[in-house]
Specification:
This protein has helices spanning about 5, 15-25, 45-55, 65-80, 95-105, 120-125, 145-155, 180-190, 245-260, 265-275, 280-300, 330-340, 370-380, 385-390, 390-405; strands spanning about 30-35, 90-95, 110-115, 130-135, 160-165, 190-195, 220-225, 240, 305-310, 315-320, 320, 345, 345, 360-365. By secondary structure, it is of the alpha/beta class.
């Protein structure tokens, strides 16, 4: 028999939409895969070559992760954040998602989730038997909570421990948090720890990207990995950087790691060292410029009197709100969009919004990233002509979605 705590859980909606899209395509339907979010780009060649070289590595590695990898991550992050991290602060996991799950299991307190939040935060909190406090956010504040809204929750019981999830650039909105300093003041004032999900940080369109860890590093757990910036979602390598004064969390995570995943794939850990030691500036610059151009194209062509949408600031998501749509739920709306246009979107209710609000998440990654990057690097021209030639499904899918929004 199933335990009551998991009986009502469903498969992750992001993974489910990928399966649905694939099944529809296999039946001959033309599907615009705007639902599933993964990098369209290839893993850099020098990292792939390193994986090949280390394919023979077959020993269990330390449960906290390969020492040389943790050293390279600590050095890379310390330089980037202007804060001294040691390899002792780093724990490697089979994707950051697994580490977040274990954190939810060990945390004793309440989880503060801004709406919108990534689809797995809340289910993991439920499995971890944690009470969730949802914070409704506003478009004007880039869909992030204010310090006042966070403090209002904490003041209900100042003696509790609180864990705030802050994801910037954000999935699903594609926005960046701009009120980090005021949030950090609340963090310093109360029993508040922040899980800073920075998995999209390398894909920020603003060169001067900052995270909450720049303001209160001593109370911030940084969560990131290879999947988004390196095009290596299927490699499943993520990590936490946990500051010294949260050592008890790191030590307990290590214990749970030893009883669950044991250690991350050895060849992938060896290969990942090169991801942080070698210079990937050109690869990252090209990735950011291509994603920014395509994101802006989608924004410019969808933003209208029918569709409210914020200009993308990082990652590869947009969050359109179809203000004239009349459906019982955003799920029903997305089902209609898929049926009528072939465009696969995720409903806003999957990210914490009221189901009656006609919001959806759009991932603009349905294009051949390898081909696009090669052509762009040869031509160094990035305009609508190039987008129409190299990302035709993005262009056609957006046109279909625009027609749909005008017809309802």
């Amino acid at each position: 028999m199933l335990k009551n705590i998991v009986k009502n859980l469903e498969a992750s909606s992001t993974l489910k939409i990928n399966e649905i899209s694939r099944e529809l395509e296999e039946k001959g339907n033309k599907i615009f895969k705007f639902g599933f979010g993964q990098s369209p780009f290839q893993v850099p060649v020098n990292i792939v070559n390193e994986l090949k070289i280390n394919a023979h590595q077959n020993k269990y590695l330390p449960m906290q992760g390969l020492m040389d990898l943790r050293k390279s991550i600590a050095k890379y992050t310390s330089k980037k954040k202007d804060y001294s991290y040691s390899h002792k602060n780093v724990i490697i996991g089979p994707g950051s998602k697994e580490l977040m799950f274990l954190l939810q299991v060990i945390f004793d307190g309440e989880i503060i989730l801004p709406v919108p939040s990534w689809v797995s935060y809340a289910p993991q909190a439920i499995i971890g038997r944690n009470k969730i406090q949802m914070v409704q956010t506003k478009r004007e504040n880039n869909w992030f909570p204010t310090a006042f809204e966070i403090e209002k929750i904490i003041l209900k019981d100042k003696n509790k421990n609180y864990l705030l999830f802050l994801n910037s650039p954000n999935n699903p909105s594609g926005q960046i948090c701009e009120n980090l300093e005021e949030i950090s003041e609340i963090t310093k004032k109360y029993n508040l720890i922040i899980l800073s999900d920075e998995i999209y940080s390398e894909l920020s369109f603003n060169k001067n990207y900052q995270s909450i860890s720049n303001f209160c590093p001593e109370k911030t757990i940084i969560s990131t990995g290879l999947s988004k910036w390196c095009g290596a979602g299927g490699w499943r390598l993520g990590y936490f950087i946990i500051p010294d004064n949260l050592k008890n969390i790191k030590d307990t995570l290590n214990i749970l790691a030893s009883e669950t995943f044991s250690a991350v794939s050895a060849p992938i850990q060896y290969a990942a060292i090169k991801a942080y030691e070698l210079d990937h500036k050109n690869y990252l610059d090209s990735s950011r410029k291509i994603l920014k151009a395509i994101g802006n194209y989608v924004y410019e062509n969808l933003n209208s009197n029918n569709v409210l949408i914020n200009k993308p600031q990082g990652g590869f998501y947009l969050m359109p709100e179809f203000i004239k749509a009349k459906f019982t739920s955003s799920s029903e709306m997305c089902e209609n969009i898929l049926k009528v246009t072939g465009v696969a979107l995720l409903p806003g209710s999957d990210f914490g919004f009221d189901e009656k609000r006609m919001i959806a998440r759009l991932s603009f990654t349905d294009f051949d990233g390898k081909n696009f990057m090669k052509k762009y690097e040869n031509q160094k021209i990035l305009d609508d002509v190039l987008i129409k030639n190299l990302a035709p499904k993005i262009v056609e899918g957006v046109n279909q979605l625009k027609k749909w929004s005008e017809s309802i």
